[in-house]
Specification:
Elements: H1 3-6, H2 23-40, E1 115-120, H3 131-147, E2 157-159, E3 165-167, E4 185-190, H4 201-218, E5 225-227, H5 239-248
Parallel strand pairs: 1-4, 1-5, 2-4
Antiparallel strand pairs: 2-3
Length: 258
């Protein structure tokens, strides 16, 4: 299923027809509810609605779609893609981490940028400052999103614990990071699980610096800088990053006066 369809069509596979449920259908519903309850217990960037269909693309290590790469896996250059807008200064290009380019046939073109949304990946805590480890984590997320028949990793940029900023999905393509609210919305991922850890000072400094640059570049007001949970029923970007985003956008915060 393409990401275009996924964001608008949510058929329940446990319902076998439009008529009354059979006994087998009821048993399937009961089994499905139990499985969803167990899945919701795995904290991460999941929806508080406790259904998998309302989550948008944040893979968990326990998710059967998630397939961690071996530590010795080679990170090969990405395939060429349609030329995108020039990268902001200091951003690591996706050719340094992605095994393949996006499948542009599954994505819509980006419309005029009017919003920026902050996420965490909601996976296991991540504190490594290794560039190789960050590249491997990004490739794992990209592979998981592609496993859902999405065009590519859902976010446009990613920030690692060392404060490096990485190009993710090319920004000429609409992202897949906030259900039904992706047009004109730049998705920025901060690597880690901020329900279970705190962002590093380097990552937070990069958030302020990069988001400020992106606000100026795209003429986005601070009132249009969101976190995922402000646009959808989800714990993302985790309570610790949410607290910081509340601070930096208000009062004496770094983004407040922009």
């Amino acid at each position: 299923m393409s990401e275009r369809i996924e964001q608008n069509e949510h058929r329940d596979p446990t319902v076998e027809s439009d008529g009354p449920l059979t006994r087998r259908g009821l048993l399937r519903l009961a089994a499905g509810a139990a499985a969803l309850g167990a899945f919701a217990a795995m904290t991460g960037c999941e929806s508080t609605a406790s259904t998998r269909r309302s989550r948008v693309g944040q893979p968990l290590p326990e998710d059967p779609i998630y397939r961690p790469l071996p530590r010795h896996a080679e990170i090969r250059p990405a395939l060429p893609t349609t030329p995108s807008v020039a990268l902001p200064s200091g951003v690591i290009p996706r050719t340094e981490w992605a095994r393949w380019g996006p499948d542009e046939s599954l994505a819509d073109p980006m419309t005029r940028i009017s919003r920026i949304t902050i996420h965490h990946d909601g996976m296991t805590p991540f504190t490594s400052v290794s560039k190789v480890d960050a590249a491997r984590r990004l490739e794992n997320i990209r592979a998981a999103h592609r496993g859902r028949r999405w065009a590519d990793i859902g976010y446009h940029y990613a920030i690692d614990p060392a404060g490096r900023v990485w190009e993710a999905r090319p920004r000429h393509l609409q992202g897949a990071h906030v259900k039904d609210q992706n047009p004109g919305n730049i998705g920025v991922l901060v690597m880690g699980n901020f329900e279970r850890q705190r962002p590093t000072p380097e990552a937070l400094a990069a958030v302020d610096r990069f988001i400020a640059d992106e606000m100026r570049r795209s003429q986005v007001h601070v009132a249009s800088v969101y976190t995922h949970q402000e646009l959808a029923r989800t714990a993302c970007p985790g309570r610790n990053l949410q607290t910081y985003m509340n601070y930096t956008r208000h009062g004496q915060g770094a983004l407040a006066s922009l």
